[in-house]
From TrEMBL:
Originating gene: ugpE
Name by which UniProt lists this protein: sn-glycerol-3-phosphate transport system permease protein UgpE
Pfam families: BPD_transp_1
Source species of the chain: Enhydrobacter aerosaccus
Subunit: The complex is composed of two ATP-binding proteins (UgpC), two transmembrane proteins (UgpA and UgpE) and a solute-binding protein (UgpB).
Family from the record: Belongs to the binding-protein-dependent transport system permease family.
Length: 283
């Protein structure tokens, strides 16, 4: 029985609206700043409504680039670098994790659980603890300033491996026995049965890992010295931290809006699969 409590209903809606305002207001101010000229952004008070320079600012950022004459980087180049990195990280993490979980659950080999718990323990290690030795390995292999150096060192995921393992443990043993009776090889069982059953989990992890790869800042900053491999997050930070002049806030905010667009689109187009992958209980 659901009780009708108008006060609690109003209170819950007010809390929800307050939360939305707190989260959305910075994004709104970023958009507003991207529609004004530089003089307006340097003059108090800061406007709260969009201006008339939206098309001009975004055209300049996309075509001429931000501060292009003084060492700036074309934003399309950095967007493409971020896209390649995000897709590589997301696909790589899912591929490695699902195969590792499949091996741990369905194969019997010495020290099987020791290897799994060794992977799981890495969840307790922050990235900063292993970033210096990882950099040393990448530098020794000649992978600095390359897409391989951006992607390969961070594609292992203990979290995804654990989630796939838990899902595989929930798959009925009858399916495994039936595939053996039919003469299916382990990889055929994996490809035809487990992979289709895992599609919602894969979709949810893809969204999470894509955003993780897109938002990477410390690792690309460490291993890239050539501007042709800068990511969009690095580009925005680099243009904001200027010492000899005030940043062009209108163009900088336009860059920030463009940087937010791909992750937002991924969440919008995959939100149904994302939610199902997190809450679905039927296997």
């Amino acid at each position: 029985m659901v009780e009708n409590r108008p006060f609690l209903t109003v209170l819950s809606h007010l809390v929800m609206i307050l939360g939305v305002v707190i989260v959305a207001f910075p994004v709104w101010m970023t958009f507003v700043a991207s529609t004004h000229d530089q003089a307006t952004m340097l003059r108090a008070p800061i406007p709260l409504l969009p201006g008339t320079h939206l098309i001009e600012n975004y055209r300049q950022v996309l075509t001429a680039g931000y501060n292009q004459g003084n060492g700036g980087i074309p934003i399309l180049t950095t967007l493409m670098n971020s896209l390649i990195m995000a897709l590589g990280v997301a696909i790589g993490k899912i591929a490695i994790s699902i195969i590792a979980a499949f091996a741990v659950v369905y194969f019997r080999f010495p020290l099987r659980m020791v290897f799994f718990w060794a992977i799981f323990v890495t969840l307790m290690l922050p990235v900063e603890v292993r970033i210096v030795p990882t950099y040393g390995v990448v530098a020794a292999l000649g992978m600095l300033n390359s897409y391989a150096g951006l992607i390969i060192p961070i594609i292992a995921s203990a979290t995804a491996t654990f989630l796939f393992r838990q899902f595989f443990l929930s798959v009925p043993d009858e399916l495994t026995e039936a595939s053996r009776v039919d003469g299916a090889s382990p990889m055929r069982f994996f490809w035809d049965i487990l992979l289709p059953m895992s599609r919602t989990s894969i979709a949810a992890l893809f969204v999470i890992q894509f955003i993780y790869g897109w938002n990477q800042y410390l690792w690309p900053l460490l291993i890239t010295t050539k501007e042709s491999f800068y990511t969009i997050v690095m580009n925005v930070s680099r243009q904001a931290n200027v010492a000899d002049a005030a940043p062009q806030w209108n163009l900088l905010m336009a860059m920030a809006m463009l940087a937010m667009l791909p992750p937002v689109l991924v969440v919008i187009f995959m939100q149904r699969q994302f939610v199902r992958g997190l809450v679905e209980t039927e296997k």
